[in-house]
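Students often ask what a 'structure token' actually looks like in practice. Rather than answer in the abstract, let us consider Dihydrolipoamide acetyltransferase component of pyruvate dehydrogenase complex, a protein of 494 residues. Its sequence is given first.
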Amino acid sequence: MAHCLRISGARLRFISSSSLTSRFPYIRGLDAIHEKLLFEEDHALKHKKAMSGVIDKRTSNCLLPRNALSSRQISSTTVSLHQEIGMPSLSPTMTQGNIAKWRKREGDQVAPGDVLCEIETDKATLEMEAMEEGFLAKILCGDGSKDIPVGQPIAIVVESEEEIAEFKDYKVAAGGASSSSPPKKEAALKEEAPKDESAKSSSNQSAPELPKSEQTVSANDRVFASPAARKIAEENNVSLTNLQGSGTAVAPQKPSEKPIQSLDFTDIPNTQIRRITAQRLLLSKQTIPHYYLTVDTQVDSLLALRSKLNNLQEASSGKRISINDFVLKAAAMALRKVPECNSSWNDDYIRQFHNVNISVAVQTDFGLLVPVVRDADKKGLAAIADDVKTLADKAKKNSLKPTDYEGGTFTVSNLGGPFGVKQFCAIINPPQACILAVGTTDKRVVRDLDGGFTTSTYMSVTLSCDHRVVDGAIGARWLGAFKSYIEDPVTLIL
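Now compare that with the structural description of the same chain:
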């Protein structure tokens, strides 16, 4: 049976082609690779010089392809066949990530499904799992490493424990080539030499000495004297530098003011979530033509219905329903009536979504996160309350999964209930076309039907719209539908 050649350290090892196929089933075009690696046994004996660290160039570059996540590598140095673990892409918008913490240490054995490290993405902190079994030989990017591009190697995995020592000084060059020895210092020394020579030449150079006449002139120029006095002194061969002026002395200078004390401050490093949030909101404000519509909604009926429903929830050990849960349900129902607001802009078309997925803004210690309540129009108030509380807890623990925050079609931001903000305008969450800003409830004195006065509870909401997608009349229609659901909340549970 034909065999393929493999270099492991300074050893020559033979692996059957069937074994290689079973170990690397994910490699495309493996048959073609085998054809290049197959040797007759008598021919293989002629290549025992590979034991000295030399390998046929025809095989060194074609053994395995590089993968975006990991790749098998074999180089012309003495390192063994190994797997480079690259920074994965864990969200659609992720271009770089941070290493929050390594769960495995160098030398640890790993198996498929083992958590290698925690990756901080633009949305959350996620766990990265091992894809194959082996030993973690080298960690290339340690705890706290920041702004690592997707695909850049962060660790090395080998098959046997004996091969770990070979990767003690392993490095990956900027161009992606691997190296098992530290870079040479000759180039650095050559760069320093010209600098030293230039420094010496500059230090040896001195300013040209001025003639005595020029020195005298420059010295006389520093004496404060009128042209007439200078002329008389010159006629009498008197040096002005040795004379004391008879005029009024120059007034003493005021003492210099104390410098203004600098401000005390602390620089707080931006997290990955904060940077991505800043980029997306800046993009939104610069590229989306916002406009804003505000209405006041009467919520007395909603508060009364909420009180009754919460009594039933407590009796059945269910979670309490908040005003925000009513807002989410009303927004979802209004999107079914006015689907133009459940859309996003593209240069050649406007995409109108059939699913109503409401993104809910949640403030956490890690930054602003926006998990998604899916198919909110098809869920009851109790189910929405359960989803919101579960997602909010996961967001505050920074444990959201990509499925928890992807696919939103409309956003609700509530600063009224938790913070008492009366009214505000929110920035659209791209690529969505609308976001609803919800203010707090407050009692107002209003006229009753008999011409007298009474008090009623109101809540202000402001709809921010992308004018490329939603015209003013469409936005007003949506707000009208939302207002009708809020002021007659029984329609939300029918």
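One point worth highlighting: The first strand starts at residue 3 and ends at 8. Ask yourself how you might have guessed this from the sequence alone, and why that guess would often be unreliable.
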